[in-house]
Amino acid sequence: MNRLPDTFLWGGATAANQIEGGYREGGRGLASMDVVPQGTDRFAYMFGEISDLSFKDGRNYPALTGIDFYHHYKEDIRLMGEMGFKVFRMSISWSRIFPNGDETEPNEEGLKFYEDIFLELKKYGIEPLVTICHYDYPLHLVTEYGGFKNRRLIEFYKHYVTVLFERYKGLVHYWLTFNEVNCTLVLPYVAAGVVLDPAEDRDTQLYRAAHHILVASAWAVKIGHEIDPENKIGNMVCAGEWYPYTCAPKDVFQAMTNNRKLYFFTDVQARGEYPSYGLKELERKGIRLPFVENDKEILKENTVDFLSFSYYATHVVSADERVNAELAGNPLATLTNPYLGPIKYKRQDDPMGLRITLNALYDRYQKPLFIVENGTAAADELKNDTVEDDYHIDYYREHIKALKEAVLLDGVELLGYTSWGCLDLVSAGSGQMSKRYGFVYVDVDDEGKGTYKRYRKKSFYWYKKVIASNGEDLE
User: InterPro entries annotated for this entry (predicted)?
Assistant: First the structure.
């Protein structure tokens, strides 16, 4: 083959907590990200360091409104149809289905809202790729149960997914269990609904939550396959290879160790058991995973059908503590790579790194892969009802070239590609709108003010051409 298969799924990706809004409508309950404000302490919330989750006067809470997809979804899906999308990655807000998360009966208005979205997508021949839980927990499950530190959340999640799989049977065929599950160890509040207890060992809390999420994910695979054998259910991780700072063996081993932090999760979800290196590390730390009866069997017998991931950049690490000093205290930090270009939003673009990441995952698991987030942000300026965003086009062009090389030259099995933030949306990191990824400009500023009108950017027409040519026309 010298071109991508005709079945390749082109599209874009979003998350409910970053686009949906409508937080007081349709019976929706408060969600975990609703109470995370903009500002210098935003990451303290995301790291699980702030226990007071009440709203504060004078603070801006961007997840409450997003880009008002709740009222604009028909217009937005029409724009996706115009671009020729084959797939749209979206998420369901758990608190729109179960406002508190622990109810017996679901909220019918919430179920109907997503059903209407799926039917609208079907009109344009767009396949929904649904993330069941994308950084989005009913706030009640956080404040009353402690998030996924509490094993009871597995049962709440099982009930939630059962309702989704039964209600949307035949409408949705592609599912993701959790978003960036490996971020549980870095952003516990965001990824697991966990506020850390300073009186308890941090790592013990994190790995307890991670185990519960991995078991819940396996249950979702089991339930989803039983309800509809046609369902394709994948995991989702935050990926991007770690490079050694030098070719010194200690640096190489340190990079391997960092990459294993990702494989710890993908090994469980794709192979069905914890890797020996991970168990040894936990043993050294004195951490016992909270296994109960049937956990091992559930994990082993319900591996994912495919692996999906976000890719934004690669990372660099050294084993030398003096070199690594600048990373201390920042779990998201990376050393600068002198062989790559300028740092933008604390990242360096690395298209070949995408090819490397694809090969690393496919070599390890031999399961189909799906790139479900990839993109770059800029402070776009609207002029004459459009945006001349050549920087977006340049970024996507080089990364699409890289994924094609992985498929056509290396033999990687890749299901599709959904660029992140196909519509401008609230940044998960900063909570701002000025960090814009989309092919569509949304007239909303960082304070949530604006007309909410949508405008096609230059990249809109470029991506339409890419999809129409199945990735052949990248100019």
Answer: GH, GH_1_N_CS, Glyco_hydro_1
pLDDT at 333 > cutoff 90: no
Q: Would you state the structure tokens that stand for residue 291, as one six-digit string?
A: 């296994």
Q: Residue 1 above 80 pLDDT?
A: no
Contact 335, 317 (CB under 8 A): yes
Residue 103 annotated in active site = no
DSSP 350-419: -HHHHHHHHHHHHHHH-S-EEEEE----B----BTTB---HHHHHHHHHHHHHHHHHHHTT---EEEEEE
Catalytic residue among 373, 381, 398, 413: 373
Who's near 216: CB < 8 A, 6+ residues apart? 148, 153, 154, 157, 158, 177, 178
- Scored b (16 or more CB within 10 A) or e, 286-299 reads ebebeeeeebeebb
Q: What is the CATH number of domain 9-198+210-237+366-468?
A: 3.20.20.80
Does the predicted TM-score (pTM) go above 0.70? yes
Q: Which of 20, 120, 180, 241 is catalytic?
A: 180
SS3 120: helix
Beta bridge partners of 64: none
Active site annotation includes 226 = no
For the chain, what is the radius of gyration of the CA atoms? 21
Q: For the chain, give every domain's residue range.
A: 9-198+210-237+366-468
Residue whose C-alpha is closest to residue 142's, from 32, 16, 17, 27: 32
74-132, pLDDT tens digit by residue? 999 999 999 999 999 999 999 999 999 999 999 999 999 999 999 999 999 999 999 99
